[in-house]
Amino acid sequence: MKRLLCFPGLFFLLALFGSGVAFSEEAGASEHYTIHASDILEISIYGETELTRELIVRPDGRISFPLIGDIKVAGCSTQEVKEIIDKKISAFIPEASSTVIVKELGSLRYYVVGEVAKPGMYDVPSRLTVLQALSLAGGLTSFADHDSIIIIRGYGEDARKIPFDYSRARKGKSLEKNILLERGDVILVP
Question: What are the structural domains of the chain?
Answer without folding.
Answer: 23-104 (3.30.1950.10), 107-189 (3.10.560.10)
